[in-house]
């Protein structure tokens, strides 16, 4: 993947309802600085939040899972670190699809809801960030807010836990208890893939 200053890219944050057209200002050693071409105040983002960066290089669409390092609301800029990326043509795309989604998590039968942010998701598992301290091997119930009124409800077990600077990072294994959930998740990921491809091409045409 190649990104350079002057490239038009897309940015997705869980607080927004769409992809935001952005201009690359700097790129070095997997650190990208972009200027949003819309008001950054439309996004309620903070250091440490997961972000999805969409870009095009040599006719390939790349979807990168990123972490916000710094932001300057006066200059409308965000600096982020690229953690991993996929291409939309990759047949293994759904092994780990980068997302930035708001979710609510509950422990077992508890009604108490904990804020969680989904950073990537696949048919078998997902990675989330949360300030909540969940035990290893704990079963959690999730309501994932996927935008456009779409809500995905599923169960998952904590199989990995790492304390980060701003949050706990969790790796989870999805437990399917509803036959409709896998199809809903598949349709949603296909929708994200199509949206990413179309948006990048549209943004570049309007450059």
From TrEMBL:
Q: What is this protein called?
A: PilZ domain-containing protein
Question: What are the residue boundaries of the PilZ domain, all occurrences included?
Answer: 90-189
Highest taxon of source: Bacteria
Q: Which GO terms describe its molecular function?
A: cyclic-di-GMP binding
Signal sequence region: none
**UniProt xrefs under InterPro entries:** PilZ_domain
